[in-house]
Design brief:
Length: 252
């Protein structure tokens, strides 16, 4: 089936947040993630565009949605792909409704991302959370869109396994005042020596400005990753810092 101009225009439009929100849809590309999507019950597939070779190698236990799967050439796939080297399959999905999971909040460590702007950082942090068993990553209203194609690709499928609602930290604290709120700052307690509450919210600040003043006032504890020697570096990348903190939390 040849892709129509309208189909190409529609799919390409989903590369911008404005149209993702307008149509309530987003794009996922790549063999591994789409195979996992086919096993999910909580996602609604709008359409799948795949090469004949990909369809032929699909495990028989994974069924493609009837009347929603379109066989296209690699050339056609390149016209709708956001990747420099298109994979063999692309799916358009409806955005799921993501709400705060109270049970996850009250019984685990959760991350709160305060105005993270870089898509690669958000995607990597989602992947880190998935790796270390952090089941929920809150995104501030100013954090980059989870459904940005660069974010989705860099999560390597973690967005399917980690709950990531948009939330205001002040509202979380207001509703769950007993929850410890730890913030990663430059002048906090040494993460390798301090005590941890066993659950709570870990706040990771913006790449350049750190945690906002409003959210700093909500912290119950400040934590910091110490440098091992005098260095000219002012701080760590947000995703790198998150990985170190999560590893330390899980080692306790």
């Amino acid at each position: 089936m040849a892709l129509s101009k309208n189909s190409i225009k529609f799919i390409k439009s989903l590369s911008t947040k404005k149209f993702r929100q307008k149509y309530n849809k987003f794009i996922v590309e790549g063999d591994k993630m789409i195979r996992e999507i086919l096993t999910q019950d909580n996602l609604t597939i709008d359409s799948i565009y795949a090469t004949e070779s990909w369809i032929e190698t699909l495990d028989p236990s994974l069924s493609l949605p009837e009347h929603k799967t379109f066989k296209i050439s690699l050339t056609e796939l390149s016209r709708i792909s956001s990747l420099k080297t298109p994979n063999q399959v692309l799916a358009v999905l409806e955005m799921p409704v993501l709400n705060i999971d109270e049970s996850l909040l009250l019984n685990n460590y959760n991350l709160y991302l305060d105005n993270i702007q870089d898509p690669g950082n958000l995607g990597t942090i989602m992947r880190i959370a998935d790796w270390f068993g952090i089941p929920q990553v809150f995104r501030s209203p100013g954090t980059v869109d989870l459904y940005n194609s660069k974010v989705i690709q860099s999560t390597m499928g973690a967005f399917l396994r980690v709950n990531s609602p948009v939330a205001d930290l002040a509202e979380i604290v207001k509703s769950y005042s007993e929850i410890p709120v730890l913030g990663a700052v430059l002048d906090g307690e040494n993460i390798f020596k301090t005590d941890y509450p066993g659950k709570g919210v870990i706040v990771i600040g913006n790449e350049g400005k750190g945690i906002s003043e409003q959210n700093l006032s909500l912290l119950t504890k400040k934590i910091s990753i110490p440098a091992t020697h005098n260095t000219g570096a002012e701080s760590l990348n947000a995703a790198v810092a998150t990985g170190i903190i999560c590893a330390e939390l899980k080692n306790r």
